Amino acid sequence: MSALHLTLGSASPRRRDLLARLGLEPDAVAPADIDETPRDGELPRDYAIRMADEKAAAISADSYVLAGDTVVAVGRRILPKTESEDEARRCLKLMSGRRHNVLSAITLRAPDGSARSRLSENVVRFKVLSDEEIASYLAGDEWRGKAGGYATQGAAEGLIQWIKGSHSSVMGLPLYETRALLKAAGFPIA
Predict the structure, then answer these.
(1) What is the pairing mode between strands 28-29 and 99-109?
(2) Does residue 69 have an active-site annotation?
(3) Among 1, 84, 85, 104, which residue's beta carbon has the most beta carbons within 10 A?
């Protein structure tokens, strides 16, 4: 069997670090440049899977391509990857004292073009956040470009009451699902 090569379809250092927890270093990193606008009426679960599939399909590589997307949703409402402090503040206020869903989808595309996807569904509950706690969190700049305006591996972890599901998935790469897809493709994983 020839050596298997893996391209990670993400520029996220967090996803690369998580992949390393499985003992894997991608042979290449090639983030996909696609339109990430949700479709009218698109449900969060469907959106997450579509984004992972489209990212994997958009990367031109003669290797296996692993791409993913993490979506934060309150009910049927998909929260943005926040680009402004006001946008992040609105997201945090919406999630304050409530449960929300974190959906992480991954797609592994083979060199022959075939693809398999997996979805990890998780529930996260923030404590009731005071205006001071939100301002303090926003001052740290961790929210920038993050789905729902937070990253659980940073200061926001101290604001989360509980997580039901996979911690790695909430961080951006569901390791159980990733391992299963890679193992099924023949990657040497213990």
Answers:
(1) unpaired
(2) yes
(3) 104
Output the DSSP codes for 70-84: EEEEETTEEPPB--S
Total residue count of the chain as it appears in this document: 190
Which 3 state secondary structure label does DSSP give 142?
coil
Per-residue pLDDT of the chain (190 residues; tens, 9 = 90+): 346 899 999 988 899 999 999 999 999 999 999 999 999 999 999 999 999 999 999 998 889 999 999 999 999 999 999 999 999 999 999 999 999 999 999 999 999 999 999 999 999 999 999 999 999 999 999 999 999 999 998 899 999 999 999 999 999 999 999 999 999 998 888 7
pLDDT of residue 3: 67
Neighbouring C-beta atoms of residue 101, cutoff 10 Å: 22
Q: How many helices (H) and strands (E) does the chain have?
A: 6, 7
Which of 35, 69, 86, 131 is an active site residue?
Answer: 69
Q: Which amino acid is at 183?
A: K
What lies within 8 Å, CB to CB, of 72 at 6+ separation is: 78, 79, 91, 95, 100, 101, 102, 147, 148
Alpha helices per DSSP H over the chain: 13-20, 44-58, 85-95, 131-139, 167-171, 175-184
**Residues contacting 58, CB < 8 A, separation 6+:** 9, 32, 33, 34
Angle between helix axes 175-184 and 13-20 (nearest 10 degrees) is: 60
